[in-house]
Known about the structure:
The complex is a heterodimer. Chain A has helices at about 5-10, 15-40, 45-50, 60-85, 115-125, 130, 145, 150, 160-165, 180-190, 205-220, 245-255, 260, 295-305, 315-325, 340-350, and strands spanning about 170, 175, 270, 275, 360, 365. Chain A is mainly alpha-helical. Chain A has four domains: about 5-50; about 55-95; about 105-220, Orthogonal Bundle (Cytochrome Bc1 Complex, Chain D, domain 2), CATH 1.10.760; about 245-365, Cytochrome Bc1 Complex, Chain D, domain 2. A two-stranded antiparallel sheet of chain A has the order 1-2. Chain A has a two-stranded antiparallel ribbon with strand order 3-4. In chain A, helix 12 (about 245-255) packs across helix 15. The radius of gyration of chain A is 31 Å and the shape is elongated. Chain B folds into two domains: about 75-175, Cytochrome c-like domain (Cytochrome Bc1 Complex, Chain D, domain 2), CATH 1.10.760.10; about 175-285, Cytochrome c-like domain (Cytochrome Bc1 Complex, Chain D, domain 2), CATH 1.10.760.10. Chain B is about 50% helix and about 0% strand. Chain B has a two-stranded antiparallel sheet with strand order 1-2. The N and C termini of chain B lie far apart (about 105 Å). At the A-B interface, helix 1, helix 2, helix 4 and strand 3 of A face helix 1, strand 1, strand 2 and helix 12 of B.
Amino acid sequence: MTNSKETDNSSPYGIGRTVKRILAGAGGGLVLFALGALVHQSGAWDKLRTSLGGTNVAPALTHEAQEKAAREAMLAARVARKKDKEGKAPAPLQPVGHDGYFVPPSEADIPKGPVGDAIKRGRDIFVDTTRFASRYAGNSMACAQCHLDAGRRENSAPMWAAYVQYPKFRAKNNKINTLEERINGCFNYSMNAQASPAGKAPPPGDDVYKELMTYMYWLADGAPTGEEMRGGGYIKVKETARGYDYARGAKVYEQNCVLCHGAEGQGRKEANGKVRFPPLWGPEAYNWGAGMARIDTAAGFIKANMPLSKPYSLSDQDAWDVAAYINGQERPKDPRQTGEIEEARAKFHKDEKSYYGKEVNGKLLGVGVARSSPAGT
Amino acid sequence: MKKTDPQGRPSTPPVDEAFDPWEQVRPVPLFVLAVVFALAFWGLLTYVSEYQAQRRGLEQKAETSLLSPVTSKPPVATGALSGSPGVADGDQATLGMVALGKGQAWSCASCHGEAGQGNLNTPRLAGQPADYLQKQLQDFKTGLRHHESMQVVARALTDQDMAKLASYYAGIKLSTTVAPTLGGDLARGRAIAEKGDWKTNVPACFSCHGMGGEGVGPGFPALAGQKPDYIFGQLAAWHQGERKNSPQALMDGIAQRMSFEDMRAVADYLGSMQSHAPASPPQL
């Protein structure tokens, strides 16, 4: 642009004209910029892009957005139904995520007030049992070690599915069990309450039960009673032709479990002494009366959840074998055993897949192993 | 108009009488001018906001380094105090490797800082579990973990050197706070670190690396106070299949299921956590 030349000889494009044009251009530019910013801010551009088929939402967020929408829809339907005097508003639907599993409420939605406080205390007991229910914890475990993601994870016996199953008849004690009685069982066996400072599970009506049940009730918000919910309990791993084997399991354990749970099944602790990876056998693990001490239950948990971040990575055979290896080790005794192991086996462990009262590597299992110092906290 | 004169020479080409050697003024269309200005505004605003963010970051950094004078304390003292096994006898040799290097290999401190505090892409070593550091050195030596500079260094070290260096760095107590550098969403980063994303099988970082991100020996390194650039770089390397030495390929799978947004978020969050390095590597 050799502007100077023209400005001399052609009057219509004089210097004044050029300045005017530049000013007009600057003004137009500002207007354009403002318009662009406005369109960007309003989100219309993003909407257009998504409607044209481009996915604008990060894939990691989609399942969360879907879960949130499912719960919001249920809550909205509840409000509509309450307002509707004719009773024609549709019943709220069970909130379900992209994978077809129930969506429990998010922790951010814990209500304020006494109920919310109880929910939070229940959650604390659930994830850090040895700290928040220390009187009744006789080992280094916590509810959330077997009920993953603080009791929310499908196929790891989630609490939203358990809550709607009680009261229930259980063959284990041959009577109708309330939810409190069921949790009492967890303390007696999985938390090995016999070795706790109190020496027993929380007494009936204890706050520990109330708080845990409040937490569970809240997690099950929107779940229908009576339904055996998808993803509830642990999965059942098909029995394999080769059965389960302690020796084969030792190899699977070495390759997949030692990193976190240790060669001696002792688990691992943080520098401050807090348990990071739970012990699987020995005095700090669940006792012989726990459901997890049964090989089939453990195989189901392992298959669907272990190693952490790699669910379903073990073959059925490996899951059975490693469960046999873990449950073929000595652990705290079954608190129900008063006489001989033989007798307790016939009475409490009759038809179950367990090494209780059997010999593995020339050692009779079920004798029990106790903490060196009682209530070692 | 073809004509040839009697001698058969071509006639001179016709001259366009209207030809003007001075190009006519064709003013730039107003619209183009406007677009140019709009882009200029955009650029200017972007520049200004970036500049401000950078300045804020620098100010924060200056503040944190003022807040934690521990950083500048000589590592020698803490190393000797920690009383971890390898340090006591081979003190001189270990410190030599740290500060001066060994043979062809340059010193650790030349990249990782005088107290092993790291810098940008160079990881912090202070307070890492000794077994973890030792394994990484071995992996650099064998090529299982790939890094040209570290391979040169690791090849110059004997197994004993590695053990001594590992326990030396594990014993350094160093409390630092690092300003986030990646512009990640800290709230999202915290959610991933504390709760994880179970539906995509990304467990909480803390479920293995310790509730304070302080690392759980022997296999899980400390994350709290690690350099965000380094954390992001490693996650990205796993994501792309460039780093392959995670036990049981755990981190490979986890990083592959993470979005880059989430990696930035979690790297920034973990880096900006207060690091509590254990005095001695965790037992049991």
